[in-house]
Amino acid sequence: MKANKAPLAIAITMALGSQSSFAETNDSVTQLEKIVVTASRSESSISNVSGTVQVISQEEVAQQSQPGQKLADLLEQLVPGFGPSTQTVTDRTQSIRGRKALILIDGISQADNRQISRHLSTIRPENIERIEIVSGASAIYGGGATGGIINVITRKPEDGDIQFASEAGIKVSGDELSTYTLNQSISGRQGNFDYLVSGTYESRDGIFDADGDRVNPDPSQLSRSDTDTKDALVKLGYDFNVEQRLEATLQYFDDQMDSDYAADTSSITTGRIADTPAPVKGLELKDQPYSKRNSIDLVYSDADLLGNNFQLQTYYREREARFYPYPNVIGSSIFVNQSTSTAEVFGVKLLLDRELTDTLRISYGLDYDIDKGKQRGQLHDLQKYIASGGKVIVPTGSSYEYGPDVEAKTLGLYLQTSWDLTDQLAMNAGVRHERAEVDISDYNPLAETWLLPEAFRTVLKGDVRKYDDNLFNIGMVYRLNDSNEVFANYSQGFEVPDASRILRNAVAPTSPLAANPAINGTNVSEANLDAIKTDSYELGWRGRFDSLLANASVFYNESDKTITFNSDYNVDLLDQKRKVYGIEGSLEYFLNDNWSLGGSYAFTEGRSYYKEVDRWLDLQAADVSPEKYIAFVSYDQEGMNVRLQSTTFADYDKGKKVSGGKVVSLDIEGYTTVDLLASFDLPVGTLKAGITNLFNKDYETVYSQWARTTYSGISAHKAEGRAYTLSYRVEY
């Protein structure tokens, strides 16, 4: 069935996103140029950037943010080329231009070598100052940005005396109060010292579908049902003088599940696949899943150090994530496993930025970090698990290695230039030298841990893998006039593979299990741990007029390696060519001082070459977002804003994969949802209300449809039905 596209969405084939802010005049709406730092690591106006860059303001984040939502839900609506929200903890299907996005917080990468897709679930919207998005491969912040960069910049302290802000919100889903949120912040300045303290507590009950039924928890990547979140941001700053400043940022995030509902895993234990798995009440699980992230960031800056704008940044971050117990099948054996992944990252960043002439500016520096990661598994009583229908989950035995421990050391040296060749033509160019050393520890193969007595197990020897490469970017911006510019850009991205995940299911050539086809493991001597290098090309246009803002771009990227998810037990890095291409565009038109309408369109398509069938096959919808339409109409006057918006993902019937030597189709059914958002200034405070999924659309997300075939049906779940939100904020 084809997805019904909202009429306004069909009419709009270009979109603005959120690249500019506006000031009203008597006759028209005038654009105020926005400044970005993410594209070049130094301040630059968007009109000088040779690529697609978007800035989402604090006001836009606040408008879209509703109780119970995560940041990824907002980005689905606001970023044209960003993939569909999963409505779970994972960001698995949310790529940019068919490639992975690098998530930054205040310019610091949140990635670690043991790659788990939870970064956009551990950042609260209340603590965001703005978000800068750079689309396309980039190495300016280090490895991982093969699709783009999402830089979340946290709130800054307010000037003046001490200020307080309190906010409370609720969500009603399935006729039940499903979420409540509380936020309190304190901010101000005393002399040269400024401070911000912000704390949020959110409690979420179940998620309910369009029929009012509780949605099945996701046992593979983790649901957001029955979870409590505690989040804190502390910023302390001291100005030595007008040029020198020291700033410390501390962040704490803790998301804990405490549920009485077990996932329906009967398709694994009985072989019967339900159309829509339903949650099972009566869960007995002591060690429930969670996500934790703690970090500290120190920045010293000097606006004039020997003629340079100087910044030295050092940081420490620890991340811990526990998964839901999952039934793993090897041959005729079932193992109920739960794992916990941890990472510690310490790093230093040095930036120097200066204007050599009136037309030439350079930014240069280095990045260095040490990343230590490990993952441990724990088996659970299979008989109790099966007898209780997956409700009684009791650990047995000691923990074990769930893949090798990995320590990665990375050094990056970079130089970025911006040069106005003429009054109309500007060039941006840069180079980065990336060098990484990945130390893989000795470890016990997972399959042997599960299947063989200890005396017959083989300890796999670790290894040290070294990577180094030079990455280049060059782009041109031509200013047609004060309102229009066209640009062309070439850039390269770099990614070191997740060695722990690829080697988790490895077996030694001499292992008793090596010849067992049921193991489906990777022969450790044949494991591919090469780095992935991506070449990205883009052509685009930006226009700013009295009442209209618009942009459009076409893009193409390619690599000669591909990470594949073969089954729940096997992730491989293949010498497989991949190419992705598409178009994006958006617009916003101001009818008058109060009314505006607009939207965005994004089309992404990609293919990989499979040697075993000698064919190029289209990528799955989990890797390239289905055709996406966003449309909105907004009414804005002093003290009131109302916005009606629709999101459409079209049917996707091109996806293919090779399984057992045969080509298998992976179709996705599209869907359209509509939201109504409003805010009103009261005599004291601001009231915000929303209705998400206004027409109570009954559907499954793209992620759920992908998970249905990937995880034997147990992770499929309906999307949330109509939900009502209400929040109140007061500043004093």
Quick overview:
This protein is 7% helix and 52% strand. With 732 residues, it is mainly beta.
Describe the structure.
The protein is mainly β. It has one domain (7-731): Beta Barrel (Maltoporin, Chain A), CATH 2.40.170. The protein has a 22-stranded antiparallel β-barrel. Strands 5-8-9-6-7 form a 5-stranded mixed beta sheet. Strand 38 (656-659) and strand 39 form a beta hairpin. The longest helix is centred in the last third of the chain and has 9 residues, at 702-710. It is globular and about 70 Å long. Residues 1-31 have low confidence and may be disordered.
| CATH fold field value | Maltoporin, Chain A
CATH architecture tag: Beta Barrel
Helix content: under 10%
The count of helical stretches stands at 8
- The helix/strand class is mainly beta
The largest sheet, given as strand count, sense and whether it forms a barrel, is: 22 strands, antiparallel, barrel
General form? globular
Radius of gyration: 25 Å
Number of domains: 1
Low-confidence stretches: 1-31
Give the CA-CA distance, first to last residue. 52 Å
| CATH homologous superfamily placement | TonB-dependent receptor, beta-barrel domain
Question: What is the level 1 CATH name?
Answer: Mainly Beta
Strand content: over 45%
The count of DSSP E runs of length 2 or more, i.e. the number of strands, is 42
Mean pLDDT across all residues, rounded?
89
